[in-house]
Amino acid sequence: MSERTAETVEGYVVDEGPASQRQKAHQAWRQAETIKRLSDRLIGLGPFGLGLDGVLAWVPGAGLAYGLGAGGLLLFHAVQAKASAPTLARMAAYLAADNLSDTVPVLGWAVDTLFPGHLMAARALQKDIETRHGLPDEIDPKTRKARRVKKARR
Questions:
Q1: Which helix (H) or strand (E) holds 120?
Q2: How far is C-alpha 11 from the chain's CA centre?
């Protein structure tokens, strides 16, 4: 199976082959990883974590604005990566539950702090991408983190 690359004629993309789609999917995987860490894993405490989503939940309006923005960005990347309809639906459900809890003062904010909706949505997208395109080349399949490149000694 040959991999085609995108061909540009007068500034317009004429053809996108599998290589281009795989590259877009892996870029979406990396973006999901970033959003996942910022939203729900800036500080990890065993299986629990705290991120911007949990901290901003206690600031009326700011938590909802951040949650909607980060969730919208995750869904945008999922559409760009051509995620399956069930994956998009699952992501939307996680994000809706996360953002709806933010509308209830105090109790809802506490739930939003503890519920990792962005993390769950990002993982759903990453699993979908891994199923269709595999992990990005720089990600170690065992640790699921970027591989460290050994620097040559001078």
A1: helix 117-133
A2: 30
What Rg value do the Cα atoms of the chain yield, rounded? 18
pLDDT at 119: 94
Q: What angle do CA 39, 77, 69 make, to 5 degrees?
A: 45
Q: What's the pLDDT score for residue 49?
A: 84
Calpha distance 111→53 (Å, rounded): 11
Residue 57 structure tokens: 């939940």
**Does residue 18 have a pLDDT over 80?**
no
Structural contact between residues 46 and 113, judged by C-beta atoms closer than 8 angstroms:
no
Question: Residue by residue, what is the 3-state secondary structure of 2-51?
Answer: CCCCCEEECCEEEECCHHHHHHHHHHHHHHHHHHHHHHHCCEEECCEEEC
How is residue 118 written in tokens?
């962005």
Q: What gap in Å lies between CA 16 and CA 9, rounded to an integer? A: 13
Q: What three-state secondary structure class fits 146?
A: strand
Going by C-beta distance under 8 Å and a sequence separation of 6 or more, which residues neighbour residue 82? 21, 25
- The pLDDT, as a whole number, for residue 68 is 95
Two tokens, residue 78: 């999922």
Question: Over the stretch 83-135, which tens digit does the pLDDT of each residue have?
Answer: 999 999 999 999 999 999 888 888 888 888 889 999 999 999 999 999 999 88
